[in-house]
Amino acid sequence: ALERTLSIVKPDAVEKNHTGAIIARLEQEGFIVRAMKRVHLTRAEAEGFYAEHRGRGFFDELCAFMSRSPIVIMALEREDAIAKYREVIGATNPANAAEGTIRKLYAASVGENAVHGSDKPESAAREIAYFFAGYEVSPRA
Ligand code: CMP
Question: Is 58's C-beta closer than 6 angstroms to any atom of ligand 1?
Answer without folding.
Answer: yes
